[in-house]
Amino acid sequence: MTVIDTNRLKIGIPKGSMQEPTLRLFRKAGYGIVIEGSSLYPRCDDPELQVMLLRPQEIPRYAERGILDAGITGYDNIVECEADVVEVAQMVYSRASSRPYRWVVAVPEDSPIQGPKDLQGKRIATEMVNIARRYLEKHAVEAIVEFSWGATEAKVPHLADAIVEGTETGSGLRAHGLRIVDTILESTTRWIANREAYADSWKRQKMESVALLLQGALASDGMVGLKMNAPRATLPTILSLLPAMKRPTISPLADEEWVALETILPEHTVRDLIPKLKRAGAEGLVEYPLNKVIP
């Protein structure tokens, strides 16, 4: 049963491989979260947030029950446990890259299995049993699906004919001599909420505020700010060089012959851009890091 506490938002943060990326994201968004020893209840400098560390697979279930008001987990975990929750926001980040996490069917390189129909009567090992079974049902295939407690790549070929495993790049599977047969599900990180908590106006506003800042922090990845002074005479040339998100901010200076410009651009473009801007007449160029970009 959901208990609505209108003074604090109870949130779940994933424990394990996603813990550090998630804590970094919260810090960049402006939330200081400190884990003391092995405590599962980190301290947060926002008194309106009560944080708990949980396995990401458990967060949808606890959010559905109202033990958590909100939490961060993968879409795959929501689908696996069929949790009835509100998906407040999607946040594309992971432990290694910004790519979606894929659940795939993989087999040894020399396996005769080439597609879903070839799984008929086979043994499949996976952590995502329900997702695998629904995939088989979709293709009208009957196979034995066994839960794997980990090290799933090692289960083939001696303990299973195929595996359903998660991957970002596929490199780990290739390193184990495995070949991807099919992609079952693509998953990204989601900010989810308990339905009753989301119906509460204070909690909903707090959830959406946190989501806005987290997404702003993600949007700033790989972006920097750049400001400079420029002669009005060369302004058209300088503007043509700037790959701004929209248009740079232009402000007048005390000297009417000059203006100040400020813009946001991808960090990897700056090393080539600054010399060009300097040659075009820009002066006082300052590059600075960004914590958040809110559209």
Can you walk me through this structure?
With 295 residues, the protein is α/β, with parallel strands linked by helices. Helix content is 27%, strand content 32%. It folds into three domains: 119 residues, Periplasmic binding protein-like II (D-Maltodextrin-Binding Protein, domain 2); 87 residues, D-Maltodextrin-Binding Protein, domain 2 (3-Layer(aba) Sandwich); 67 residues, Alpha-Beta Plaits. It is built from nine helices and 16 strands. The chain has a five-stranded mixed β-sheet, with helices on both faces. The chain has a five-stranded mixed β-sheet with strand order 9-8-10-7-11. A four-stranded antiparallel β-sheet has the order 14-15-13-16, with helices on one face. Strand 8, helix 4 and strand 9 form a beta-alpha-beta unit. Helix 1 packs across helix 7.
A few lines on this structure:
With 295 residues, this protein is of the alpha/beta class. The protein has helices at residues 19-29, 59-65, 75-81, 129-138, 171-175, 195-199, 201-219, 235-241, 270-279; strands spanning 9-14, 33-34, 43-44, 49-54, 70-74, 86-91, 101-108, 123-126, 144-147, 162-167, 178-187, 189-193, 223-231, 249-252, 258-266, 283-289.
